[in-house]
Amino acid sequence: MDSLKRRTTHRKRWDRLFQGLFGAATLFGVVALLLLITDILRKAAGWIDLQFLTSFPSRFAEDAGILSALAGSIWLIGLTAPIALPLGVASAIFLEEFAPQSSLTRLIQVNIANLAGVPSIVFGILGLALFVRALGAGRSLLAGALTMSLLVLPIIIVSAQEAIRAVPDSQRQAALALGATKWQAVRSVVLPAAMPGIMTGTILALSRAIGETAPLIMIGALSFVAFLPSGPLDQFTVLPIQIFNWTSRPQEEFSHVAAAGIVVLLVLLLVLNSAAVLIRNHYRKRFEA
Amino acid sequence: MMANTSDRFILQTRNLNLWYGERKALANINIDIQPQRVTAIIGPSGCGKSTLLRCFNRMNELLPGIRIEGQVLYNGEDLYGSNVDVTEVRYRIGMVFQKPTPFPKSIFENVAFGPRIHGLTENLAERVERSLQQAALWDEVKDRLHHNALGLSGGQQQRLCIARALALEPEVLLMDEPTSALDPVAAGKVEELIVNLKKRYTIVIVTHNLQQGARVADTTAFLLGGELVEIGPTSEMYTRPRDNRTEAYITGRFG
Questions:
Q1: CA nearest to B87 within chain A
Q2: Which one in A171, A205, A288, B99 has a CA-CA gap of 20 to 30 Å to A177?
Q3: Each residue of A122-152: pLDDT tens digit?
Q4: What are the residue ranges spanned by the domains of chain A?
Q5: Using the beta-carbon criterion (under 8 Å), do A178 and B113 form an inter-chain contact?
Q6: What is the dihedral of CA A174, B71, B47, B250, to 10 degrees?
Q7: How far apart, in whole angstroms, are the C-alpha atoms of residue B228 and residue B220?
Q8: A82: Cβ–Cβ under 8 A, 6 or more apart, which residues?
Q9: The domain over range A52-285 is classified in CATH as 3.20.180.20
């Protein structure tokens, strides 16, 4: 009896130890994030106002604004999502539901998974050669959105595949046993059930796209834009490029302007994410009784 | 000769062999299914009961590495013929699975699913009501047709799946251990339903519950190790089995 007690005490000690360790690991990230955010908010305080949101960049910190970069980022995401999302989901459906189990399919699969890890600058080089030069899209929003679509496609495909794979096979079989064609089973049973997972992947992908800088610099997005893009073929800049530009200015005031820009970027990210979360919850609700 | 036999039997297999990769799952099965009767397929786990059942609506094809030899005849016609459309096979031969598989849609949309995908949208509401009535579920759900089907109990879900299959007015209903995931009361209701449905439909049911087989089936087939040991009227099978392996299984000496 005593030995049982001793062993139990021993086991419980380890239990507590690991609980503490894992808690500390979580805390590390949270504290770092809090420090970062408070630092940025402190610097940005007093610099985010209507003037900042509605002005173009300027040589003078007091006059500088985020308008063209904010518009550029919104344009870019607005163009990237409708290109990348259907392409990605369609590829995922093909690979999961239709493609034969061949070595070619496996090769494609491995390549897509690897593409998700390719440095973004490489996509920038590809975008420059393919969209800017070969297709003649120039240094436009369209070229940027196409490049960004290539960049986020692997993320969307892989996460959509996982979501599709997670739909129980019994659901497919039930549809097929009623005489559904494969496509009917996919459209009316598999896709609705996979939608929450697909939306989660899309959130991740678009969040990645909105924070990317390197590939857009590569394809020639500008850093000083004193006009608003009026269509997909216009030149543009985006928030991270604008922020980078401000942080590299020597004047002390511009570090405050940059902080204000970061806050705007974070808010935009939050807005986008909550929109996607709302869509996801809308679909998820339908699957609960 | 052929025409003669197919008048009497709605489903037949002729020297049916089936392999999962290297493993042989069905060996030389010759079985005749009578129309508007309940035929039970019994046998120990892994004997090939479900595999045989899935040959009747070609659900086996979905598995990779499967090979089928021999014939499955439906009203005398080869189900695996090159001119046969698999969606049409499953339109005429419905299936109910072991675990209830309702779609995460409303009760109405679950039953309407089959008619919709086959373009039978005329008088859809009547068709849905009729199917739910045949499945003895109408009275329980008529006031909440547009609620999510996942809110139903397990037994109700299984009867919903039966209604969903009946909505296509199939000739044959295949049931793969339809009550094994249900509690005894719900299972009893489904059994009662099966007995009522045979007036209109041919039913082939796989079960490992011998009492259930005895209660619902007119004909019983005993499968062992992928072979059909014997088939005959249920009462004879349970009281005077011809093969001593059948006797051993029925008296509980193995399986």
A1: A179
A2: A288
A3: 999 999 999 999 998 888 999 999 999 999 9
A4: 2-44, 52-285
A5: yes
A6: 100
A7: 11
A8: none
A9: no
